Amino acid sequence: MSLLELHDVSMIYGSVKALQGIDLTVEKGEWLALMGPSGSGKTTLMNIIGCMDKASTGSIVLDGVDFTNVTAGNLTMLRRDKIGLVFQQFHLIPYLTAVENLMVAQYYHSMPDEQEALVALERVGLKERARHLPSQLSGGEQQRVCIARALINYPMLILADEPTGNLDETNAKIVLEFFQQLHREGHTIIMVTHDPKVAELAERCIVLEHGRIANRKDRRIVCREEEVS
User: Fold this and answer.
1) What does DSSP assign to residue 203?
2) Which of 79, 146, 179, 229 is most buried, by CB atoms within 10 Å?
3) CB-based contacts of 124: which residues, under 8 Å, 6+ apart?
């Protein structure tokens, strides 16, 4: 069953066509990798899916809700209620502790619950670091706080933009193992990455070039073909 459907989506800034005629369907529980060179439209596409920008043309349906023509305020509510965001740059509030950063995300969704936030941090292995400020955490720990923050309001879709881009090899492995666990649990994930090894973890990979989908690779089909041979 599809969770997300994009039909003929384009994004135009003046004379620049950042996206052109994007058709894309993402199934519930799928892990999709999104690749492409700088300027290919990856960030633009993620911003549209993440309800941070509105497409110039086309339609976008998430969980049965068509948000093509909704207001900016309703886009904010859709993002709050249905999407969890994980960024390369973390975007943690520097003067708040790890648990307080999660409680801020809860506040904008419903009600802060410190115990629930602590449980979320424990899930990513950081309960003992709950009272630490971001500056007192390693890059890998900060990214795990971001993952906990993305999950705290039980989103239908997790969007991750280069989540290992600022991490060393050890911390990148920890973060990717956690994404693999989320996928096994049935979470739907769309992840932007420049790393082919990271993309190989996903079920499917699409490559953008000049605002268009240039290539699609379904690892599930490849695996089935290998089993048959």
Assistant:
1) S
2) 146
3) 144, 145, 147, 148, 178
How many Cβ atoms are within 10 Å of 28's Cβ, its own excluded?
14
Q: Which helix (H) or strand (E) segment is 2 a member of?
A: strand 2-13
User: What radius of gyration do the chain's Cα atoms show?
Assistant: 18
For residue range 26-39, list pLDDT tens digits in order.
Answer: 999 999 999 999 88
Domains, in order of start, for the chain: 2-91+137-144+155-228 (3.40.50.300)
Residue closest to 127 by CA, chosen among 111, 113, 116: 116
Residue 164 backbone phi and psi in degrees, to 5: -110, 5
Instruction: State the pTM of this model.
Output: 0.87
Instruction: Quote the CA–CA distance of 158 and 103 in Å, as a whole number.
Output: 18
Cβ atoms < 10 Å from Cβ of 158: 22
Token pair belonging to 202: 């996903």
Residue among 214, 179, 182 at smallest CA distance from 198:
179
Q: Are 183 and 189 in contact (CB under 8 A)?
A: yes
Q: Contact, 104 vs 93, CB < 8 A? A: yes
189 forms beta bridges with 31, 158
Report in angstroms the alpha-carbon separations of 204 from 6, 61, 112, 182, 184.
16, 20, 36, 16, 15
For residue 193, give the nearest of 20, 79, 40 by alpha carbon: 40
* Each residue's pLDDT tens digit, 63-78: 888 888 788 778 888 8
